[in-house]
Write a structure and sequence with these properties.
Structural class: mainly alpha
Number of strands: 8
Shape: globular
CATH architecture of the largest domain: Alpha-Beta Barrel
Oligomer: single chain
Length: 878
Amino acid sequence: MADMYASLRSNVGTLGQILGETIRTNLDDAFLEKIEQIRQLAKSSRQGDEAAREEMLKLLTALPDNELVPFAKAFNQFLNLANIAEQFHTISRNCDELVCVPDPVEQLLGRILSSNIDQEKMLDCLNNLDIDLVLTAHPTEISRRTLIQKYSSVIDILAALENPQLTEREKKQQHLRLRQLIAQIWHTNEIRNERPTPVDEARWGLSTIEVSLWQAIPDFLRQLNEQVEERTGKQLPTDIAPVRFSSWMGGDRDGNPFVTAKVTQEVLDRNRHTAARLYLKDIVVLVNELSVEEANEELLEYTNNSLEPYRDVLKDLRLKLRNTVDYLNERLEGHKPEVDLNSIIWHESDLKEPLLMLYKSLTDSGMSLIANGLLLDILRRLACFGIHMLKLDIRQDAERHSDVIAELTRYLGMGDFNHWDESEKQAFLLRELTGKRPLIPSNWQPSDDVAEVVSTCRLIATQPSQALGSYVISMASKPSDVLAVLLLLKETGCPHPMRVVPLFETLDDLNNASGCMSELFAIDWYRGYTKGHQEVMIGYSDSAKDAGVMAAAWAQYHAQEELVEISRKAEVKLTLFHGRGGTIGRGGGPAHEAILSQPPSSVDGRIRVTEQGEMIRFKFGLPKLAVQSLALYTSAVMEATLLPPPAPKPEWRACMQKLAEESVDAYRSIVRDEPDFVAYFRAATPEVELGKLPLGSRPAKRRVDGGIESLRAIPWIFAWSQNRLMLPAWLGAGEALQAASDRGEMELLQEMEQDWPFFKTRISMLEMVYAKAEPNLAKYYETCLVPENLHHLGAALRTRLATGIKAVLELTQSNALMEHTPWNRESVTLRNPYIDPLNFVQAELLARTRKEEEASTNVELALMLTIAGVAAGMRNTG
């Protein structure tokens, strides 16, 4: 394995060396030597050298105020540069999140076509794939956009330096540029001065498309076409779009008071503006390229036998796109311009039909080679992004909708909707949904919160259906939660049937999901509304926070199985929407393994998945990286559809059920029942201090006065990853595995891990989390920050962690964690000597800021930098 990672280590070493030279130039040799000494001591400390650990702590605690910021900055930036080297290694050596592999689509096509699945079935599956990746806001994306752009440039140079044809002079120039970039990075403030707005977050998402996905989509489809053609002799359709993109940025108002109808309107305009601007750039290039004369009859007739028929059509599109950009600029500036819709691109067909006419003319005239260049790329982009770029989902909490109906029923003298039982609610909602008269009086003046929900529904009614995705209902639990939204959409004049999607999040709601949907499917009116297609969202974050990862995972699996079965009986096509976060504790982990571990028949060519936080950058931030991620998703969904995993054996189910029950008891015995837990959590982690970091636009809590239960899953997990205990990602799971082992079920567990993808993935994720957990560091935080009377709880948690590690090692029959995933192990090993010192300093700074009434600016900034650095080092923080 050493050779496989030699180039990774070499690049990490090169970038680290240049960073060191930059620090020396800006500070002095003595400071750089101190940093290097701390790094070496951290390395030795990792190998069990207690004297090295003591020496390192002595140096860290003696750091004067004026050295705190450069120290944190140095280690923070090294970790960011290590991430860059790893991203480049991923691209250049074709690695996914766990191991270096050949192209997943190529491998899969070979396996499918050598199995008993015929070619037509495979092509049919590929042509009908519907993978929707939903980009969600970035409350864990630490890095500023200006730094991200510099990191991308560093990757470009690493790629250039691998070119064996470079002359010595060219190499020198590339190294000079590398030094310039790292100097710019060093002199840029890593911490934002202000918290981003929802519009900022939406612009961030659009920039990912502009700098990466816009190129990656046609690149990926060209690669896919070559692979299919090579094996089947057939071409993919011009409008194939196996992967599409949606967004929650600017549409997700659950617990975010800053996402208003006005903000959503602006984001919808920005999405469309970006699309028009990017298509315009493409068309400008195409005007120059398509200077050919020969055309088919249709095009010649359309252009009155023009000498340059292709250019005539393209020049007309160019003008319309310019008009579209100008019109949307005015809207974004707050004006309400009048416009002739015939003069702009307002429907997808306005762009698609002329381009298809040109494509057909070129192929009819024997110029397929030209047709399949940039023109085909634009058609493929149009199939993926449309003219709205990202379909915007709307998300709101179920309670907010019932509050609207309740305020309305009280105003109309009909009683209080919120006090009715479920059957009364359903009867009322269905009566109004099927009735002809309006329910909302024109002179009604609702409260501010209610008015905002109604304004959002009115806005939805004014949008083309292609601009919007799903209306997601957080904390849904009953049929009335869905019917209430449908009634609000009807009452505000929504002309198209929007997908209304219940999100089942807590353990109880997951367990009752199939019951809720069965009731809905039994309603004739509702069945008619769905037109035979239902989307259901499965929550990973809140279910894990509620019940722990093991019980949540089993509840998610079981809920999906039941939903698949009731949908089959109701003859409804089901799309499951997986609400994953970046971390294991929020359903994160390698996408390929996650999809293949779903229940049989639950994918069936269709899936929606959230992509959140810094994981968007790690998966899609660079075109080549994005092509790999698109290939992983496509191959996984095809495999889950055509070669589904086996259904679990009855004895596996019984064992898993027992594990789930024991794990939820073990988890809740700490999180809910331990009286000292909240006090320990707030003392031992930087949970309070995280609120000061200007990360996402959304508040950290759903309710300001709430406790752990109201804390969002992201800060909950982020805080525990900072002190390196990683508690939400393992608590309860290891204890349940150990109990099963004590009952003599280890052989059964090993069979499950070997033959059941669901269980194998769970254990693999658990192993990764255990490898990242550092009980000694967590203990150091405790020593510095936690009152002595609470130390008993820390000791108990570390004992549970050790129990879990022992159980997983016994189960996987390994001597060390991640023995079978060397790529991940290498990644963790590379970072540890840089993360550890940041953790030690963070604990010291937390202790200092909590004692002082007002911390100095240096201390505050250094603390923020340590948080950013640990997040960069841990990678999947939120």
